[in-house]
Amino acid sequence: MSSTTVRWMSMFLDVPPPLFDTSVAFWAAMTHTLLGPAAGDHGEFVPLQPVHGDPCLWLQRTRDGDASCHPDLYVENVEAAAGIARDLGADTVLETDGLVVSTSPGGLPFCLVRHRGQHLRPEPVGAARGIVDQVCLDIPPGAFDRECGFWAELTGWERYDDHEDEFERLRRPADIPYAVLLQRLDDERPAVGAHLDLAAGDRDAEVARHLSAGARVVRLTPGWTVLHDPAGMTYCITGRAPGDV
Fold first, then answer.
1. Which of 30, 104, 118, 224 is deepest in the core (most CB within 10 A)?
2. Average pLDDT along the chain, 245 residues, taken 10 residues at a time
3. Into how many domains does the chain fold?
4. pLDDT at residue number 86
């Protein structure tokens, strides 16, 4: 079975209406970005435009539910990519011209979107040199092997060991803006989730900046700090050098 060629990747933060404007302001400030023109029938999609590079972080106003996030994969042939995804175990939720909404075998929502020429990865900016440069898939242990295999087969990206028991990775092409970390959770959950990871040259300074803007610390580890943004969405600030994976 052949894989699809992924030309670009965006992450969408899905936020219910009461928290949407607060989330847009928070993430624009934390990523040193400007608001791009809203898209969608009701202006429900807002891109964050980096100083250098193409947009790869969007906020989506949802109808209800808790805040969450999902990946969009940009491909040349959406219909062919959707067929490959279905053969690998994905469920199609919605299919329109140039867009297919699906869920992975483990239940993570994702979209296949027609590529529109994006190719410039954003660069770190700000005193702490922080950047959102990684998505972590949070996978229950019973679904780990199948879910990792699904994403590796769909993208064609090599799956490899991260030298820690609970983590593996996919080796992304150089022009894809997000590294993909695969985390085996300790406990079973109903579905696979996802969260953003930031790399920061000065982790403590970056955490302090996020706290001052309304985030709160959930957990502190030697390598990363787990936070909730103002909408309650989980994300991490890591001590990695930006772009080192």
1. 104
2. 87 97 97 95 96 96 96 97 98 94 98 96 78 97 98 97 87 96 97 97 93 98 96 96 73
3. 2
4. 98
3-class secondary structure per residue, the chain? CCCCCEEEEEEEEEECHHHHHHHHHHHHHHCCCEECCCECCCCCEEEEECCCCCCCEEEEECCCCCCEEEEEEEECCHHHHHHHHHHCCCEEEEEECCEEEEECCCCCEEEEEECCCCCCCCCCECCCCEEEEEEEEEECHHHHHHHHHHHHHHHCCEEEEEEECCEEEEECCCCCCCEEEEEECCCCCCCCEEEEEEECCCHHHHHHHHHHCCCEEEEECCCEEEEECCCCCEEEEECCCCCCC
| CA distances from residue 194 to 20, 134, 233 in whole angstroms, order as listed | 19, 10, 10
pLDDT for position 128: 62
**Cα–Cα distance, 75 to 6 (Å, whole number):** 5
In this structure, what are the phi and psi dihedrals at residue 147, rounded to the nearest 5 degrees? -65, -45
pLDDT value, residue 137: 98
148 & 218 share domain: yes
Retrieve residue 94's tokens. Answer: 């919605």
Domain boundary among 81, 114, 147: 114
Q: Supply the pLDDT for residue 225.
A: 98
